[in-house]
């Protein structure tokens, strides 16, 4: 059994992490800490002091779900306690802090919580790419957006909109959404983007100066597969806004409504010779957070490797943070 502690009891913790702990028969919750006592309402067991949680009997691993700027201070305290840590994306609000955080976890089991790696549809895509079903993969095209006005609040716990505060988020739509697509591209292709440029814009929302509500990114892997990635906080939620296409010479795979936190969506294979489109089966009942939590827990218990080193996540974080064109 893996005993979990959760730090930061907001939206992602309440709606996704705590249900994933509850769903894993090999996991149990040791406790939850938040610096805001109100955020702990209705949860149990709770710890008002982080050090008390870190010293709790049976604690094997910690999930960090604080806002971006508050990842590093918490991760560094978890690492000082010698515990494995799974921390939300992005690593940090800037590159120097991310580097310090990764250095602090040296020698420990540590990961970034890129849940979308674990969506069953995305794992089927990775398997088909590796098996050659798509032929030569030329391009990955990703659209990932939502509607996030300046006064937006997280569905639970949100006191203010830290996501568009550059001091706490590190940017706007691009730093919030594009880390997923960059990570996912590497996961489905089996090789990472190594060149990246980005154009950002603030077209709709009156955020603080310099905070983007839209970005278009262009990337390239070492072998020459291209990435085209559009992220936005300015796409109305009823519009099509979650789409992943992997374009190959023999076939194209199209995943719709799989990007995000929930199970389900659709996966379609379009044959390059006939043009015929056929649904591709995957497990639509299991969510990415559930699978991620179980996978990290298995690594904590030494039953399976954690194949996503934090140094790789840091390289992609650095690439992203340095990608924006003036
Ligand atoms: N993987 C995903 O799909 C996904 C989805 C949503 C959010 N996230 C990430 O999860 C993190 C949290 O996002 P959210 O939407 O849950 O935010 P939120 O604002 O809903 O919750 C954050 C919580 O952290 C607490 N907190 C802040 N600083 C703290 C500190 N130093 N110590 C302890 N608690 C602290 C706040 O009081 C709040 O309760 C962010 O990094 C975000 O990027 C990831």
TrEMBL record:
Keyword Oxidoreductase: yes
Keyword vocabulary terms for this entry: Oxidoreductase
Annotated GFO/IDH/MocA-like oxidoreductase domain residues: 125-253
InterPro entries documented for this protein: Gfo/Idh/MocA-like_OxRdtase_N (IPR000683), Gfo/Idh/MocA_oxidrdct_glycsds (IPR050463), GFO_IDH_MocA-like_dom (IPR055170), NAD(P)-bd_dom_sf (IPR036291)
Pfam families named among the record's database cross-references: GFO_IDH_MocA, GFO_IDH_MocA_C3
Tagged with keyword Lipid metabolism: no
All residue ranges annotated as the Gfo/Idh/MocA-like oxidoreductase N-terminal domain in the record: 4-105
Molecular function (Gene Ontology), one example: oxidoreductase activity
Name recorded for this polypeptide: Putative dehydrogenase
């Amino acid at each position: 059994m893996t005993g979990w502690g959760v730090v930061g009891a907001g939206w992602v913790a309440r709606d996704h992490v705590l249900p994933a702990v509850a769903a894993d028969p090999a996991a149990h919750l040791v406790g939850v800490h938040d610096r805001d006592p109100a955020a702990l309402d209705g949860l149990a067991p709770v710890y008002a002091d982080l050090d008390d949680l870190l010293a709790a009997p049976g604690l094997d691993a910690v999930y960090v779900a604080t806002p971006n700027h508050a990842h590093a201070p918490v991760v560094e305290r978890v690492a000082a306690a010698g515990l494995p840590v799974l921390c939300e994306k992005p690593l940090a609000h800037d590159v120097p802090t991310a580097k310090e955080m990764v250095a602090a976890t040296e020698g420990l089991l540590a990961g970034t919580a890129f849940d979308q790696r674990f969506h069953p549809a995305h794992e089927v895509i990775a398997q088909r790419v590796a098996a050659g079903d798509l032929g030569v993969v030329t391009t990955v095209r990703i659209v990932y957006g939502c509607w996030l006005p300046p006064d937006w609040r997280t569905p639970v716990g949100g006191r203010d909109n830290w996501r568009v505060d550059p001091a706490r988020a590190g940017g706007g739509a691009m730093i919030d959404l594009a880390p997923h697509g960059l990570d996912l591209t590497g996961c489905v292709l089996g090789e990472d983007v190594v060149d990246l440029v980005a154009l950002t814009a603030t077209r709709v929302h009156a955020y603080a100066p310099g905070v983007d509500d839209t970005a278009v990114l262009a990337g390239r892997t070492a072998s020459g597969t291209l990435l085209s990635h559009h992220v936005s906080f300015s796409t109305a939620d009823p519009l099509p806004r979650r789409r992943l296409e992997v374009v190959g010479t023999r076939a194209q795979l199209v995943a719709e409504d799989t990007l995000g936190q929930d199970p389900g969506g659709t996966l379609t294979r379009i044959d390059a010779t006939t043009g015929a489109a056929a649904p591709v089966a995957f497990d639509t009942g299991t969510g990415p957070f559930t699978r991620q939590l179980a996978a990290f827990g298995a690594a904590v218990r030494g039953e399976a490797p954690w194949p996503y080193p934090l140094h790789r996540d840091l390289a992609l974080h650095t690439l992203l943070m340095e990608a924006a064109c003036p």
